[in-house]
Every structure is written in C-alpha cells, then in structure tokens.
Amino acid sequence: MQEINILWFKKDLRVDDNEALIESLKDRDIIPIYIIEKELWMQKTHSYRQWQFCKECLIDLRNSLKAIGQPLIVRTGKVIEIFEEISHNFDIRGIYSHQETGDYFTYKRDQKVRKWALKKKIIWKEYLQFSVFRGNLDRNNWSKKWKKNTERQLFIKPKKINPIAFATGEIPEDDYFGFKDDFCKGRLKGGRENGIQRMEYFFRNKLNSYSKDISSPEKSFDSCSRLSPFISWGCISLKEIFHKANSNQNNSSKMLKSRLTWHCHFIQKLESEPELEFKEFHPYFHKIRKKDNILLQLWSEGRTGFPFVDACMRSLNFNGWLNFRMRAMLMSFASYNLWIPWQESGSVLASKFIDYEPGIHWNQCQMQSGTTSININRIYNPIKQGKDHDPKGTFIRKWVPEIKLYPENFIHEPWLMEKFNSRAYSSSKYTKPIIDLLQTTKIARKKIQEITQKEGYWDISKEVYLKHGSRRKPLIKRKNFPKKRDFKLKKEHQYELNIEL
Ligand SMILES: Cc1cc2nc3c(=O)[nH]c(=O)nc-3n(C[C@H](O)[C@H](O)[C@H](O)COP(=O)(O)OP(=O)(O)OC[C@H]3O[C@@H](n4cnc5c(N)ncnc54)[C@H](O)[C@@H]3O)c2cc1C
Hints:
Blueprint: E1 3-9, H1 19-24, E2 30-36, H2 38-41, H3 48-67, E3 73-76, H4 79-89, E4 91-98, H5 104-119, E5 123-127, H6 142-150, H7 192-206, H8 220-223, H9 228-232, H10 238-246, H11 251-272, H12 293-301, H13 307-319, H14 324-337, H15 342-352, H16 358-367, E6 377-379, H17 382-389, H18 394-399, H19 408-411, H20 417-420, H21 422-427, H22 437-452, H23 457-468, E7 497-499
Helix pairs in contact: 10-11, 11-16, 15-16
C-alpha cells in the first residue's frame, strides 16, 4: 500500500501560512481532507448560516489546493471511521493538523482520535493554530510566548502537491443537516479570497480611524475590521493580520494588535479548562439563574420591548455579526435583567454568530454574566447605550419599524409616549417591555453582591485569578502581590459592580 500522510483540515481553511500543510508534505504524499461531522453541526451552537460560511470556505480551499495539484478531499461522518476507511486503502504514516481549542465535542473527539492513532501506531503531529499553548502553562510568561510565536515568519504556501488516487467526495447538500434557513442575508461570504479583500480594504481605508466608530452599531459594520469570521474559520491566520499591523506603528495598529492578543488570551482559558463552556469560573455562581424559554425566545427574536436591545438582536439575526459592545449588552440583558442561565442565552447567541469561537464566546458570556469573579462586572443599561451610540435613533428606526415614526424624544423609551399620546401608544404593534428594567437591575446587583460576600468567595476567586487572570508582568515579581486576606482590596482586582443606571 502507498504510504501517505493525512493533512486534516479543521478550522484552518487556508493553504497560506499553514504549518501543518508544509510539514505534512516533507516526507511523502498527502491526503488533504476535511471531515463534516453531523454530530458537531447538530449542536445548539451551530447553524445554517455558519454552515453556509463554512461551505464557501471549503469551495475556496478546494480550488486553492486544486491549483497546486490536489483538490481538497471531503468526507461526511465520524473522524475515526473516515480515517479507518482511509487505512484500508493507504498506509497512513502520520496525521498532521493544527491544534484545535474548540468546543467540548471537539475536545472529546480529539481525545478519541489520539487513542485510535496510538493504537494504530500513527503519529499525530499538531501545530499551533493561534498563540494558545497546551499542557502545564505558566500564565506569568504567557505574553512573552504569545509575542514570540505571533512574530514568527509566515509559511509560504507550497508550489505543488502530488495528486493522489482517492475520490475527492462531494460537499453535502444543505438539506443533509435539516437546518432551517435562518435568513442571514446580510452576512459576509466565506473563503480566503473574501477574507483577504476585507483585510486589504480595512488596512487601506479604515485602520487609521479604527477607534472612532467601533461602538456605533451602524457605523461599526464599516469601521470594525469584521475579520472575526475569517479568523475563526482560519481563512486568514492571526499571524498574517499581526504582521500586517506590525508594519504600521500608529495607535490604531497597537489597538488592533492588542485585540489579537485578547483573542488568544480568551481561547487560552478554554484550552486550560475545557469545562468553561458550561461550568462557571467561580462555583458560587453555579445554577443561580432560572431557565425561561418564553423570555429566551422573546429576547432571541428581538421582541423585548426595549428598542435598542431589539434593534441589535434583529440586526444580528440578519447579519450574523455585531460589534463588541452590542454583543456585551445583549448578553448582559439576558443574564441580569431576564436572569436566564448564560449557557442557554450563550448557545442562542453562538448560533447567530458566523464567527462563533468557543474560547472567546464562552469567556465573554461568563464575563457579561458576572460569573468569572475576576472581572469588573458591568450591567449595561440599554436605554443609556442607545442614547450614547444611536442618539437620533436611526439604527432603531431601521430595525424596529413598528416605532419608526416616533419622535426622537421617545424613540429610546417608547413607553413614555403613553402619557403624551396614549392612542398612538396603545395602537402600536411594538411589544410592551417584558420586564421592569430598574427593578430587575437592582435585584440582579443585590444577588451578585450577596454571593461575593459569602464565606470563602475571595479565596476561590484568587485561585481563578492565578490560573486565568491576564497580566503583563509576572505576578510573583510584583511587590504588591496580594496577600490572601486583603486580596480583594488590591488595585488590579477592582471587584466592584459598575452599574450604569
Ligand atoms: C457575549 C460575547 C460573545 C462573543 N463571541 C465571540 C465569538 O464567538 N467569536 C469572536 O471572534 N468574538 C466574539 N466576541 C468578541 C468580539 O465581540 C468580536 O471578536 C468582535 O466584535 C469581532 O469583530 P471584528 O472582527 O470587527 O473585531 P475587531 O475589533 O476588528 O478586532 C480584530 C480581532 O480581534 C479579536 N477581538 C476583538 N475583540 C475581541 C474581544 N473582546 N475578545 C477577544 N477577541 C477579540 C477578534 O479576533 C477580532 O476579529 C464576543 C463578545 C461578546 C461580548
């Protein structure tokens, strides 16, 4: 049988700056394969829109590989079964892939694949996809390691890949998954070519004014890089963006580079503790919230009666992307005001994002729900957010047409219309607020504060910080390393509730 290496594409759908591809080609011919796992796609966090984006990436990758000799091979099924099938036709000498810090499903699947490979005496070599590190990690040296790895030279794509006698396989039709079309008409299209176009456009036209409109829900569509889906699916490597930003030393570049660091900083936490997808950082927050499918659905459909929340959600439903601040506000509203478990609302949000990246996502969901114990808690006030970032209500009018004719004074708080023009208000088709904002905020704040006052809370919080907290300088070198008893008083841990009301 012909000896081959398998090049297993995961969320690294590119031929450029692809270390696994370069290494796999060093000693023999390869089978470059992507495996579509139905079980993975059927999870609550996955969706039709993500599949469409992924499919576009696969088509693009298949063409790029074909241009250098061997198109992408696609199979549908369980990874071990597919590898087993290949082993009946070829002598597999090695499996090459990037390290994946995905969700719990991929974590468990990789464990099984590792066992299988070991049994078959096949070497599985994994390369860094991001600057996220495996094994026992000293968080004190993380930043240095991040910089060193991200500054490494880019890998040039191979000139030629020998063709292999193995059926390329079809990308399955959409109905294979049974997804419902979720009408995400405004999303970006997948694939490296589209990603590179977006990156060039951003660096040429937008980088210098990057910080200006980053929080405006409308303008951020153009002013933010919107590279997240391309990074998440691996059409462009993080290193490529970092290198491009490095050639420019202004403040905007620094800002972009620090965001790329956050990207890995968050994924690192999931890498170090895969259970964070469903388990609170701090155990005292376990099961404090209550499931409520009706509230969850109203929130998910943008029918809460709070115009700015609903506008953001409806825009997300249509576009598959939203800026950071608005994501945080949606999550905060679900967790504090609706008091829904973050695991439930987080899954709904994940399925709406074409850039769903488990490491970032679940960390952010927990941060915006106050369960990490090492971040400053923020309960967003959606009325204030709307007034700050959509002062004239243009964005609201676009997405909440039920109130598009309301005067500016009432657009953020349509219920104030009742006193002014009760007929117009009561005949409006727009939902009346589903909760009392002031009251729910007060209650949420009180509940969180009570938990922080429980015996032993700060001791556990310190452990969480030592394992996951970000720090530029090694903690042990700091003179003011917090002592156990006054840990919460130190400046770098401002454990306070920052309420916007
Ligand atoms: C509740 C919630 C869920 C989120 N879920 C995801 C997710 O599933 N996938 C995802 O990529 N981002 C997620 N984010 C982070 C952030 O909102 C997006 O990365 C950002 O909006 C993407 O837009 P952009 O590419 O224009 O970012 P830019 O501002 O242009 O930044 C460039 C890149 O830096 C990284 N980045 C930027 N902000 C952050 C951040 N706060 N944390 C970590 N990395 C960051 C991203 O890779 C991004 O593409 C989430 C934020 C919140 C509050």
